[in-house]
Amino acid sequence: MMRLPVQASAEGLDVAFVGVPLDTGTSNRPGARFGPRQIRAESAMVRRYNGSTGAAPFDSLRVADIGDVNVNLYNLPESCRLIRESYQEIVASGCVPLTLGGDHTITYPILQALAAKHGPVGLVHVDAHTDTGDSALGEKIYHGSPFRRCVEEGLLDCGRVVQIGIRGSSYDPDPHQYCREQGFRVVPAEECWMKSLEPLMREVRAQMGDKPMYISFDIDGLDPAYAPGTGTPEIAGLTPAQALEIIRGCKGLNIVGCDLVEVAPMYDVSGNTALLGANLLFEMLCVLPGVKTL
């Protein structure tokens, strides 16, 4: 990732890039298992400094790529166990994980590991979908349910959960009811159209405070004009500039981990979706605690 050193574990690192090549939880188009390798490939042109913000992450933190989690593509619950245990080792070393997905199922076991160390965490969740479904075809674990499972297990500080970019048709007449009942703030995509999100992020920073929080970024939060390479695209989404405003707006928060999920490269032969994902991960790296600004 980003032509960084590769090592076998997170020992001695401040930040680790981790791939989770899993798409067994996908409900529509598969292929997110190939996201990590394509994001890495498209990250080759990411350079050392953020010229827009002045962030110098590689001068500030020890960063490396620790490869992929070994998942079981034939057994989704077993994959979740493997992910959880891998992330428990990462966070035990004091390292902040930046994850390359993989479908959104992976955020559930990641947050299991993080909450075991930090307690319930706040969440900035960018997505076209709330991912709070209860079950699909009788299964409780899939990419549409991770945040309901997290709520049930007490992994989220529900008063500090913000979901941005939500849109699309629904199976329910009030698709955000569950989220509101938990205390989540839901920001539908239409509330973001044709405007800067800096005012929103000022409110989000105040809401998050100084307690641990996590960024989970589904690439389908962006409009498919910019990110067609994903499994469940929805029209009229966010722009890349708004994505940068959201991530940069998290600077100063107590970020304990981030992920970028649902890049499915075969639906975008240009590689632009993975390129966008690689740059968003760089932006996440740039806003982590401890990053100096030149």
From TrEMBL:
Binding site for Mn(2+): 104, 127, 129, 131, 218, 220
Family: Belongs to the arginase family. Agmatinase subfamily.
Descriptive protein name: Agmatinase
SUPFAM superfamilies named in the record: Arginase/deacetylase (SSF52768)
UniProt entry keywords in alphabetical sequence: Hydrolase, Manganese, Metal-binding
Cofactor: Mn(2+)
UniProt-listed GO biological process terms: putrescine biosynthetic process from arginine, via agmatine
Organism, scientific name: Hirundo rustica rustica
Record Gene3D superfamilies: Ureohydrolase domain
Cofactor remark: Binds 2 manganese ions per subunit.
PROSITE patterns attached to this UniProt entry: ARGINASE_1, ARGINASE_2
Pfam family, one: Arginase
